[in-house]
Design brief:
The structure is a homodimer. Chain A is mainly α. Helix content of chain A is about 70%, strand content about 0%. Chain A folds into two domains: about 15-65, Arc Repressor Mutant, subunit A; about 75-190. Chain A is elongated. In chain A, about 30% of the residues are buried. Chains A and B meet through helix 10 and helix 11 of A and helix 10 and helix 11 of B.
Chain lengths: ~200, ~200
């Protein structure tokens, strides 16, 4: 709001003088990129001063776009969850459902190994789950793998939630950040559901 | 202490008058049995008044044998861990190591489904683990199953800790107390480690 009133869109940059609107946009992008990094490293404990420092801007620049830390955290969380929703939709389009499910869980686990914000936000993202029909997508993948004879007939979405939620909690508690370990437990957990 | 000075062992019960020593012993047994039940239901939140009420005795009777709740909790925890150590030793003596491991995990999981105290105490029972060589026993079972070709060559005791610790945490968080569910995830987790 402040930016757009200071810099009305019809005003062209004056020659020889920096384009303040382009500067502001670049700063905003830097803040967002830094926020993605810092939230990934430290989860919701990350602070605006840390993010500003990483972006190489002042705190005021951050607050100009995001009045509170919660606004920035929400924007970053939405960005990460959008990735996850796309990744799940891509899995649903693959022909071999077991492989699709395994690769999906491996990729998600790898992201969880690197992203504390995702770890903290995902268990509470009920509305996002509903809006993106995460249960529906998971159940479709499970049903397809069962038709293809590659998953136990009694496997459920709840099984995946318990097994994946389970090793994730332990790996987080042990502060394991090695993506290979996370991918290994994703693979093992899907093996658990082989017929 | 109080009991033994009140009731010296050489004194026989007087005819027509209740044997106070036998009464005290019966009360102690009742308190212990009640404590096992109440700690199983409520974990370390259980209180001495609750335990006394379940045993049908006064609080003073509990405190006579156990000066503080922590003493009673420790006695009960030791009793439950002794069961677990015996159960593990029995598994190590079975000829089919995979079946032994699976049945062991199923039985332990069933106990965890019923016993909040065990759930709360087990992750912190480092000294008990060392004294009973729990790691050694687990590794022996794993090595035997690998020799018998029934477990992945790269399976480790850590895998069992991550997978079993994992579903246990989720089932506890969801307050699942159905033993069949717990046994199911024990079986699935061992299936995960099949070659």
């Amino acid at each position: 709001m402040i930016m757009s009133s200071e810099l009305p869109p019809e005003e062209p940059p004056a020659a020889g003088r920096p384009d303040r609107r382009a500067d502001a946009r670049r700063n905003q992008e830097r803040v967002f990129t830094a926020a993605v990094e810092v939230f990934a490293e430290r989860g919701l404990e990350a602070t605006v001063p840390e993010i500003a420092a990483r972006a190489g801007v002042g705190k005021a620049t951050v607050y100009r776009s995001y009045p509170a830390k919660a606004d920035l955290a929400e924007a970053v969380a939405r960005h990460r969850l959008a990735w996850l929703a796309e990744r799940m939709a891509a899995a649903a389009r693959q022909p071999d459902a077991f492989t699709a499910l395994r690769d999906l869980l491996c990729d998600v686990s790898e992201q969880l190994s690197k992203d504390r914000l995702l770890v903290e936000v995902l268990p509470r993202a009920r509305r996002w789950e509903e809006e993106n029909d995460i249960s529906g997508l998971t159940e479709k993948l499970i049903a397809a793998a069962q038709r293809q004879g590659t998953l136990r007939p009694d496997a459920t979405a709840q099984d995946i939630r318990v097994l994946v939620g389970g090793y994730s909690r332990v790996l987080i508690a042990l502060d394991v950040r090695d993506p290979a370990q996370w991918r290994r437990y994703a693979t093992l957990s899907l093996n658990a559901l082989r017929p």
